[in-house]
Task: inverse folding
């Protein structure tokens, strides 16, 4: 387990997702120093890039609307089936 905070990113539908649970078949690699998130599929191919946010307040401060993704809904990215 990492000592780094989990945090959030804005997904492909402009909704917030936790970096430790981006969706079925996906995983995140986070560069906390640059606040960069890569969302990789099961083949380690890049599916999405985003900014890392430590919490909801940081998303609001960035001027973005806070809307949480439904983590139980199917993923709508072409490489995830």
Result:
């Amino acid at each position: 387990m990492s000592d780094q905070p989990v945090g959030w990113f804005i997904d492909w539908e402009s909704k917030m997702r936790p970096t430790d649970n981006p969706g079925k078949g996906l995983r995140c690699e986070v560069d906390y120093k640059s606040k960069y998130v890569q969302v990789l599929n099961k083949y380690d191919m890049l599916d999405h890039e985003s900014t890392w946010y430590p919490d909801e307040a940081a998303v609001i401060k960035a001027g973005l609307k806070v809307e949480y993704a439904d983590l139980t809904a199917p993923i709508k990215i072409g490489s995830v089936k």
Observations:
- Strands lie at 8-10, 16-18, 27-31, 36-40, 46-51.
- The mean pLDDT is 90.
